[in-house]
Amino acid sequence: MTGYVTEKEQEDESNRGVIYPEDHHHVGGDDDETPFPDLNRDHGERVAFQEVSKESAGSGSSGDTTLANQRQKRTKRLRFGTIRKKSGHSKHRLRKIGHHVPVLSNFVDKSPPDDEKSSKPERHLYFNQKLPPEDLDPETGMPKAEYPRNKIRTTIYTPLTFVPLNLYYQFHNIANIYFLFIVILSAFKIFGVPDAGLAAVPIIVIVVITAIKDAIEDYRRMALDSELNNTITHHLVNLNNPNVVEDNVSTWRKFKKANTRFWGGIAKAIMKFIMTKIFKQEVEEKQKAEDVDLHTIATNTTAVSHNSSHYEDNANLQPLSESVTNQSRPLQQVPTHYSAVDPNTVTNDSSTNVSSLEAGGPSPFAKDDSVIDPFVEPPRDAKFKRCFWKQVNCGDIIKVYCDEEFPADMVVLSTSDQDGACYIETRNLDGETNLKVRQALRATSGINHSSDCEKAQFQIEAEAPHTGLYTFNGVIKWKQRVDNRDANSEMADRSEPISINNLLLRGCTLRNTKWVIGYAVYTGPETRVMLNSGSKPAKRSRIMRELNINVILNFVFLLVLALAAGIVNGVYWDKTASSAYFFEDEIGSTSAVTGIITFWAIVILLQNLIPISLYISIEIIKTVQAFFIWSDTYMYYDVVDYACTPKSWSISDDLGQVEYIFSDKTGTLTQNVMEFRKCTINGVPYGKAFTEAQLGMLKREGNDTDAIAAKARKDVADDLEVMIQKLKQHYDNAQMDEEHLNFVSSRLVDDIYGKGGKEQQEATNHFLLSLALCHSVLPEANEEGRMVYKAQSPDEEALVDTARDLGYSLLDRTRNGVVIDVLGQRVEFEVLCTLEFNSSRKRMSVIVRMPETGKILLICKGADSIVYSRLTDEGQDAIKQKTAEDLEEFANEGLRTLCIAQRELSEEYYRDWAVRNQRASEALVNREGEMEKVADEIERELTLLGGTAIEDRLQDGVPAAISLLGQAGIKIWVLTGDKVETAINIGYSCNLLQNDMDLLVLQLEENTAEEADRLLTDYLHRYFGMTGSDEELAEAKKIHAPPESKFAVVIDGDALAVILKHDLKQKFVLLCKQCRSVLCCRVSPSQKAAVVEVVKTKLDVMTLSIGDGANDVAMIQKADVGVGIAGVEGRQAVMSSDYAFGQFRFLTRLLLVHGRWAYRRLAEMTANLFYKNVVFTLTLFWYGVHNNFDSSYLFDYTYITLFNLAFTSLPVIFMGFLDQDVSDKVSIAVPELYHRGIFRKEWTQLKFW
């Protein structure tokens, strides 16, 4: 690694300065279609950039002239995901247009089925080497693989397509088609319309207003696209990228660009004039958010200069100096074996350094593996140059600086950190703000300069693009000399697996790391964030669905009136003995023709029976209702600075008709702030706590809860004081957080220091050391010097926090392991391998080498059922029995339990396993399955160490909210992953279950359909006298009142899986229909969604799902109304929801106040709108009765035409968002008012008639 800056590199870095262009339109090449390349950026300052020179894409190595000419003739990049065929046609785009135009869909290729889409071929990307013949088209010599541009486009329209496409979309509305038909009829004078132009005014106004609204929305999308596409990054130039070729701009595309610039410039000027103040406010808010978000936290491994510019590379692309990175104190040698740390032998000697690397041990990869060939003399033409995101290609080398976002999905090649680590924030993907670590590949970690890239050659094989945010399978391959010191040594094939831990996803932000160099593997529409950006399922409210029927009925009524008028008028003109026969001219040639003409004239006359302003009035009303909901300060949660946010404005009236609520528990009813309360070590329980579940148990038993709770809390407080005193007597732990110490057990402190015997001392210390080692937590130091931990799971954070408070502090995470402060001694443990947690494994393990003895230990933590099934059968019966009893007691107290176990591995066994694990990690097909098999093999024959118990406390106001919703007639189901007993106790503590309720527990002795059917049939017949027939289900659909019986159903996941799999759903729904509350335990995300679907379809009821995590997304999207909690598990649920807020208790106000108001207001508005139109049109019809329906006008035609649009629109609109029958306080005080919404009394077909 060089330690000086060459003149060429200084010149390279000078290219990163700001240069002002001569021509805006050519920034980024001819493929810049956006009319706004100069959007304000960087604190509102306008920054322009020089046209990127075509020479910057020049080849760094000699190439074939013929191939170069062919590359200039043909483009291989995709246009918005469009594949250009040899014929010049774009089948993909034609297919897309065909989806919008039904006539074309019969003539274009059909989209491939889903199974074909998911089976895309793996991609092979090459760097600094020619493509092999099998990857070239033999006819053209061009690459076979085609990759999309990095430019994204989320707009619906372009300046060329806006008018025709918007009109096409608007005339999907049958009411618009009807009024267009009326305008066409009015153009014929025979129908007696005085002014055909005036007849077109209503439909023109409606269409223009809607078009303006759509144009504003699309303009906002275009502005955001333009801002994103023109974001600055740095890519490597003057080094050929063989994966893509130059993009030539066709004449058609130039024509489109000219239109875009012309019309876009006009639109920009108009929007700038209209929305100056709006954009100014947004810029200020965005700047304020950036000031808060662009924070950095100093870590032990990476330091960030807060004053340095993103565009000044003072580090010369080198890792930080030793003075910066080596901030941790010297490692101290521990005089005792780590499985039994004797605190009495602790000294303050710091003269001896211990490195875990000295112990040796196998490693899957050689430390000198590198894609860089040291014997290649680089031409030093390559350099990193500023570019726009849209100019990034698949296969480019990208350099990203601290606090910048990643422009594409990139493999980490190297970082400014010596350990190759970088820290990222994934808030734009999943809403999580805690930092995550990503690791550079070992083989590429030496790429620190642009010249290093010229000396490197490699290829990357990656899986096809997919939507998974947490999985990635790939492998990097290269050729390397057997002896790197000999230039004539033979070349050998090398490879290294690439996982999600080596992948940086587009939209994530680099934090606490000066720079990262990455290799773009997915660009544009193939990036994970774009693949996951599909809109959530469109939902329409119940009233809107029924309204279409009412409009059709009105149309039928209109036709009946017109038919009657036509018949009467035709018969009238058929009479010869009348004055009209002698003195008036007949309109038609015959009486029948006259009747037909009269029919259409009456249709025009009575056109207001179909209210043209109905739909746009409803849109205005729901928009204002959404604003009122967002503005309600009673639903603002200041802890996370989050107001109740409507994300779907079209279903506000459904909030007033919700009959069933399906709720997650963790993070929804609870705070998702985990507190370590109890543990069991070597069969000995520790910890004093009084939990909310214990309070629920006391309520269930009818005890005096207040007195017992006060006594228990006093005992805990007293023991906490004793515990802190004892800890300080033995070891003054600077890392202990006394104010937030949740685990209370003075007895455990005694056993740590040997008062409980040598054996228990060894077990206790080793248990705490295991907690400090087995995790994926990132340590950081706060302003006081105390370590704080960033964990992906709050459970992990609670475990590591407790280990820290008891003397086992995690200080640093290095490339090779972790540094632990063991009762005052700093020790580095080499982490050989980490087997990560996932929802199917339900466990995680780390393999560490003990620094003193060199022994290899596997430490595993996971669900008790999983760990117990993997324990060895030798000599553990007593501890297994006692630990199981302790964990059962913890679960009954409402605590979340985990088991800790370990296995000692021999050197030979681990070496063999490491080879198999490496092979599995390099698999491109079914990598997860292969790695799971290898992990399952080593996570066996475990020795039990103990268990932990963590409490997740209820949110404020949850019991009162559940009680209030119950009084409103809403049935609440809680879907949780807890055990049955834990869920029951939590149910009592949150008022979901009452003391007078009888619990019907659905747990199967045998997981068979016969056993489940027998149990369901028995409960239905014994308690409710039902059989589960179709007639009973039909009757149940008509009943919306709360059940009178005092029953609650509790079902576990195994029984639920059997019921959902077999034809037992009807009996299950009927049983639950008769019960006040339902608890579903140990359920998976898919089971949650299935339960919601079954209840919604079987009972035809309005459902609402509420959750806070990614595992609740399916349930939220399946319900009629989805609510997301903006909690600590990320914002996946919020992003997929229809409404979002910070606490469960806000749900009462959302439903009982805003929901009831919205439902009642919309029902009254719709009824009044139809009523005024019927009164007006029947007046005209009654006038026709007295003049033989000759189509004469009672009022001036202007009044008839503008009756709905101008003269009577505002009263009903104001009624739709201002009318109140009772105040919000009364709505909360009398929740029974909500019953009318559940019974659907406000809007019925009888009310319509």
Automatic annotation (TrEMBL):
It is found in: Cell membrane; Membrane. PROSITE patterns: ATPASE_E1_E2 (PS00154). Residues 344-356 have a biased composition (Low complexity). Mg(2+) binds at D664, T666, D1108, D1112. It is an enzyme of class 7 (translocase). It catalyses: a beta-D-glucosyl-(1<->1')-N-acylsphing-4-enine(out) + ATP + H2O = a beta-D-glucosyl-(1<->1')-N-acylsphing-4-enine(in) + ADP + phosphate + H(+); a 1,2-diacyl-sn-glycero-3-phosphoethanolamine(out) + ATP + H2O = a 1,2-diacyl-sn-glycero-3-phosphoethanolamine(in) + ADP + phosphate + H(+); a 1,2-diacyl-sn-glycero-3-phospho-L-serine(out) + ATP + H2O = a 1,2-diacyl-sn-glycero-3-phospho-L-serine(in) + ADP + phosphate + H(+); ATP + H2O + phospholipidSide 1 = ADP + phosphate + phospholipidSide 2. Its EC number is 7.6.2.1. Its cofactor is Mg(2+). Residues 1134-1249 form the P-type ATPase C-terminal domain. Belongs to the cation transport ATPase (P-type) (TC 3.A.3) family. Type IV subfamily. This is Phospholipid-transporting ATPase. It comes from Trichomonascus ciferrii.
